[in-house]
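Team,

Forwarding the record for the chain on the shared tracking sheet. I've put the sequence and predicted structure together so nobody has to dig through attachments.
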Amino acid sequence: MSMPGRLPDPYAQGGGSNLADILERVLDKGIVIAGDIRINLLDIELLTVKLRLVVASVDKAKEMGIDWWEDDPALSTRARRDELARENAELRERLARMEELAPGRVPQDVREESP
C-alpha cells in the first residue's frame, strides 16, 4: 500500500513562490481580466455587462497610458485645485460680463455697507 504524495505546504520555506512574490510579479507585468455577461430572453438581448479589470502597479499603468486618477478631483489634490481654479476663472468672467451690462449700477450689498 503506497501513501499518497503530500501536497506542498504553502508556508514552507523555499517551497516555491510566496504571495508577496506573486503579487510583485503581477503588479510589475500587469494582468487583464475581461468578461461579458449577457442576459437574453427569447433571443432578445435584455442586458449586457462588460467587465474589464486591470491589475498593475501605478508605474506600469502609466506606461500603458492609464492615468485617469490624476484627473479625478475626488482622487487628486492637483486635479481638485485645477478644477477650483477653472471654476474661479469662469465666475470672474461671468462677473465681468455682468458688470459690463450694468456699468453704473452699484451692487445692493455695497450700498448697504456705505455710511
